[in-house]
Amino acid sequence: MKRTLLDYLACPSCGGDINLSSVLADDGTEIHSGELQCASCGKTFPIIRGIPRFAHLQDVEQEKQATAESFGWSWQHFSHDDEKYAQQFLDWLGPVQPEFFKDKIVLEGGCGKGRHTRRIAFWGAKDVVAVDLSDAVEVAFASTRGIANAHIIQADIYRLPLRRVFDYAFSVGVLHHLPDPRAGFRSLVSRVKPGGHASAWVYGAENNGWIVRFVDPVRRTTSRMNRRLLFHLSKIPTALMYAATKLIYRPLNRSRAGAKLARHLFYNDYLNYISSFKWREQHSIVFDHLVAPTAFYISRDEFEEWWRDIEATEVVLGWHNKNSWRGFGRLPRGSSDRI
Ligand SMILES: C[S@@+](CC[C@H](N)C(=O)[O-])C[C@H]1O[C@@H](n2cnc3c(N)ncnc32)[C@H](O)[C@@H]1O
Ligand SMILES: [Zn+2]
Questions:
Q1: Which entry of 18, 63, 209, 234 is 20 to 30 Å from 123 by CA?
Q2: Predicted model pTM
Q3: Euclidean distance between CA atoms 36 and 3, whole angstroms
Q4: Which of 177, 185, 201 has the most ligand 1 atoms within 8 A of CB, as the residue to mutate?
């Protein structure tokens, strides 16, 4: 943990200031071991292996715990980086572009392995504070270690240990895995200052009826399965998807005549999009779908309501690969009690 993170912290219980009460190991850039303390209520929070810990997995509700454990395992086993991540990230955030991050104070809700965190830091954010509930924070910390403007925190998105000082908050692929996605969204944007911006990317209800019908029942079993076994078993559906994307979707979509035909293929937009992904990435996507105990599919109407609910202006909602929604908007300038 870098000392500059203290500027953004607030007690998750009472909102009080957070001070550094002890430092046990420090390498000059990162505090590796120590303790934080709330100046108002006195609660303490340990810094372990460089990460301030505001949530303990064993203390959170069972549903959140199961989701976080699954993803913690997942990101620790799919900890690789990929050159496609930058474009994929921007596709999830559209219309946001790298220049948007310049000098901004950014909050990332559910950072997983930190693949976006480090990019935002390199794109010139003043600071990016990335939060995740799971052990994925260990991977995120390793990949951002020593980057002066990147900060990793272990915390629950519903109980953010942060002040309302952020210029921009975003969350990709996280909110639909929460027990109450809309409440998670509200909690995230509650740390954005008046007039700041927010983005979210969520699974869509539209066009995903087949997942709800066929994948959800399977997921109920696979999310409880031994993870190593699931890791290997999930190679079977991955092999099918990999073969279909490389041998059918990609070649067809690359020619004008083929693309006309491809439009009628099952789930063409998405499968064409991932057809250039390597095996490991496709395996990670399949594993992700099978390991997550909770997944909601959000309709456009409902997603629009989320943005109305926070009284956002300049809202841009978009269809991504015809199977998910991305949203971007601005918070009202006057502070609102509704958030
Ligand atoms: C599908 S992953 C997406 C990670 C990252 N946004 C990315 O795109 O690489 C979902 C992440 O949300 C995190 N998560 C789940 N529930 C959470 C909660 N209550 N608070 C914070 N993070 C949570 C998981 O641990 C996981 O890392
Ligand atoms: Zn406190």
A1: 18
A2: 0.95
A3: 11
A4: 177
